[in-house]
Amino acid sequence: MGSKYHYYLLAMALAAACFSSLMALSTKAYANVPKVPEEWGSITQSHPLDPSIESPPTLFIIQDAHANYSAQKNLAHILEFLITQHSLHYVFVEGGQGNVTLNELRQWGDLAVRQEIAEENLKSGMFTGEEYLTVASDLDFEVWGIEDPQLYEQNYLLHKQVTTSQQKPLQQLGSLQQTIEQLQQALFSETLQQFVIQEAAFDSGHKNLDQFVVALKEALTNLEHAEAFSAEVYPEFWKLLLSQEYQSQIQLDQVKQQQKQLAATIVREQGDAGKQKIQQLAQDFKSKKIDKAGFYRTLIELAEHTSIDLSASDQLQLYTEQLELNQELSPKRLWEELNQIRQSLKWALAQETSQRQLIDIMQRMDKLKRLAELKWTSADYDAYLEQAESYRLQQWLPELIHLAETQSLTLNADFDAAALDEWLMQAAEYYRVARARDDSLVQQTLKKMQVEKQQFAVMIQGGFHTDHCVEMLLERGVEVHVIAPQVGAAASDKSQYNQILEYKFENRLQGVL
After folding, report:
1. What are phi and psi of 52, to 5 degrees?
2. What is the pTM of this model?
3. Which of 76, 407, 439, 476 has the greatest count of CB atoms below 10 A from its CB?
4. Is 483 helix (H, G, I), strand (E, B) or coil?
């Protein structure tokens, strides 16, 4: 397969954790974008250009959750959907250079045989979603690598260096975390401590988004000056609260019953014309031309145009409003608001200087732990660029030691802070090179689209790259829509992915692949 794996996909760490907690949101709808079926994924960002611009280049960015079987399977579904809807020919990917399509693997057998083999390779992690689709379908498309080879290799080697040496740093940071948790119990009020516990449960996946939002709402009710958290300041957060309120009132069995009754009434009132409209509506929904919200809204509008009394369709109307409200939500802005609310709320609940000092230490510790685990987002790296020195452990460790001494506690770690800082800066260097790769990802994609005269294309990339690439694409006059595949309950196997990544990369160097 020679050049097919000239370079391969990098680092699970670059698949954003930032979108994984938002998957419960319904598919976001946009006027100029196909409504991705919600069982496969959701549109997390959409940047349509001015309607006066005729036929702008349009790029669908699919965020990759490496080594997660359900996410990769949903990625393949989304990709097939976009290829069919827009006659797409190019799928641009990280980790490769030039044409890396696996078309020759279609020689394995007929479609049924290929689908079975592709499924096995997808489950094992050896195939990505786009590779699975190449083998398990007869669709005509090319997978095109858009990497700068030197930068990719540098990034891969940094990733390997960090991941093979991270056990000791993680243990040392874990020991510091134990001291911080002891200080929380000693210094925090019961309300503040309970909120920190809820926050940790959300971060670890033991609470879902809806549960955590309820916890935030309850904590806000205990504040004297909750106006700082109003709907004017945090509109997406309050939209989600309203959606939850709707959800508590909705009975889906009644929604379904009212839908059938309304459709029957339309047919009875309009005769054959009404029957044709209902049949067409059902066909559009089945073929995924419209989503569930569009189906119900059109049904209601048909009834309104026929002057049908909707008083008996209260549950149907409420459910439709909830679906449309979910579509108005911006997952990206919601996530930003949640992070702002979390930090502001902790500061508001803190009553003493020592509590605020510990909150500041906790925030710094969280950033370093996620850096050590290679879980930074693009926003994390931007924040680091603004205040790189503040990320050094040696800057705030004396303050932690002092707080511990005030409570007769000793640090649960014995290590060289300077050496740990040096290792953490090496991890930050990994992200510097990852950011440097973005220019090639954008430039190579647009160059190929222009040469091949392609209006639509797909780019598949880890979440770390997304926000920066979106900025660069918008600056170049490209319409961009970001899609996040649904991620299943089973977590990505990071160690498995690292092994597969190393196998493919090292064998490429030895000329085996």
Report:
1. -70, -20
2. 0.80
3. 76
4. strand
